[in-house]
């Protein structure tokens, strides 16, 4: 997959700009606060209809403007597409070949992107919610059904929690409607957890190989942790039934896949407790490069890669190895304040675009 052309209109600090990209490496160079990450954010928006920096989509519209849009000419193995996401005060609208696509799950997949930002470097020791988010986002890219079901799960969970609160206020210990909601959640949970487990098995295999290449010292293992001993609708529902009273007291669904976690181990030691900064970086790098391979395996072609200011966070050896892994395979967008010290041959051949004050200049 690749983005050949990107148009920005009233997007962040861009009034109007058109970028023509190289199929391999594109480097956006500029001082701080010039608009480099804004370009990555625009590509990510085109890919997912979301920003990786804010949930408030209206922040993407240029100050003083009523609307903004991002439009990309995208080339894949199958077809070429014109993709567009328009953001206005009313919300956002996504289009493929000028056709309005109402459901996000129908839009995702035309342009797959793997994003790597400095915050990802805290994935190993950070909050479980970031690891769950990674799982949900990445599985959604290769499975529209997963995306549809996880959205439905969270809606039902919210409804169940609100209902638990009402039961507590009414001093009730159960209700037929609680049974219905629990049954629906149990059915979805069994399906979603199985899909997560399958994905993690693949991630474990691929990231193990990548880690071995990036840092041959230890063995990386990635595993999925859930509170359920048996993954079936019946077993999950039975657990819900057993914990009705507790959930009503807490006014919250205490157990569930919304509490599950992804664990990393190096030579059987819990990486969240023992991994050094360098080891954590290698793990995240192994995960991100493994994700590229998983998308290739599942979809049949590589996604694009967005590297926001992360190369400067990696040492020379890891940087070189990372570039070796993506060279001539993956269209990559790199933001940086300077290319000094970037030694790989692909950097010399890369398309370099200077960004200043929301304007670009090919150099
Ligand atoms: N909605 C908006 N309208 C106009 N300008 C905006 C808007 N949102 C952000 N900006 C401007 O965009 C600039 C930041 O751009 P960006 O985050 O892409 O910086 P950057 O070049 O990646 O910098 P750094 O190297 O510091 O990460 C700031 O000057 C900010 O004021």
Automatic annotation (TrEMBL):
The RecF protein is involved in DNA metabolism; it is required for DNA replication and normal SOS inducibility. RecF binds preferentially to single-stranded, linear DNA. It also seems to bind ATP. CDD domains: ABC_RecF. One of its GO terms (cellular component) is cytoplasm. One of its GO terms (molecular function) is single-stranded DNA binding. The keyword Disulfide bond does not apply. Residues 3-348 form the RecF/RecN/SMC N-terminal domain. One of its GO terms (biological process) is DNA synthesis involved in DNA repair. Keywords: ATP-binding, Cytoplasm, DNA damage, DNA repair, DNA replication, DNA-binding, Nucleotide-binding, SOS response. This is DNA replication and repair protein RecF. It is found in: Cytoplasm. InterPro entries: DNA-binding_RecF (IPR001238), P-loop_NTPase (IPR027417), RecF/RecN/SMC_N (IPR003395), RecF_2 (IPR042174). Belongs to the RecF family. The keyword Cytoplasm applies. ATP binds at residues 30-37. Its main location: cytoplasm.
């Amino acid at each position: 997959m690749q983005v050949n052309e990107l148009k920005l209109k009233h997007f962040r600090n861009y009034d109007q700009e058109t970028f023509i990209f190289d199929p391999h490496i594109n480097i956006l160079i500029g001082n701080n606060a010039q608009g480099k990450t804004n370009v990555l954010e625009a590509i990510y928006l085109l890919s997912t209809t979301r920003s990786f920096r804010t949930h408030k989509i209206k922040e993407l519209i240029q100050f003083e403007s009523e609307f903004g849009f991002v439009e990309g000419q995208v080339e894949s193995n199958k077809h070429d597409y014109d993709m567009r996401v328009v953001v206005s005060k009313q919300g956002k609208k996504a289009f493929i070949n000028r056709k309005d696509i109402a459901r996000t799950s129908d839009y995702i997949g035309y342009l797959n992107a793997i994003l790597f930002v400095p915050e990802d470097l805290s994935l190993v020791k950070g909050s479980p919610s970031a690891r769950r988010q990674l799982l949900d986002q990445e599985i959604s890219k290769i499975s529209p059904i997963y995306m549809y079901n996880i959205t439905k799960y969270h809606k039902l969970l919210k409804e169940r929690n609100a209902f638990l609160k009402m039961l507590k206020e009414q001093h009730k210990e159960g209700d037929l409607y609680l049974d219905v909601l629990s049954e629906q959640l149990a059915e979805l949970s069994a399906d979603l957890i199985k899909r997560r487990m399958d994905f993690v098995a693949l991630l474990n295999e691929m990231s193990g190989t990548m880690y071995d290449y990036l840092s041959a010292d230890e063995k990386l293992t990635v595993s999925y942790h859930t509170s359920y001993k048996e993954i079936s609708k019946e077993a999950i529902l039975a657990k819900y039934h057993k914990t009705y009273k507790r959930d009503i007291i807490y006014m919250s669904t205490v157990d569930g896949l919304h509490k599950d976690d992804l664990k990393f181990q190096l030579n059987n030691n819990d990486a969240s407790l023992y991994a050094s900064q360098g080891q954590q970086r290698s793990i995240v790098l192994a995960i991100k490069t493994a994700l590229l391979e998983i998308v290739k395996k599942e979809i049949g072609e590589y996604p694009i890669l967005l590297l926001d200011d992360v190369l400067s966070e990696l040492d020379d050896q890891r940087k070189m190895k990372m570039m070796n892994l993506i060279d001539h395979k993956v269209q990559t967008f790199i933001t940086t304040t300077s290319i000094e010290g970037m030694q790989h041959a692909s950097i010399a051949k890369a398309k370099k675009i200077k960004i200043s004050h929301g304007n670009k200049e090919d150099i």
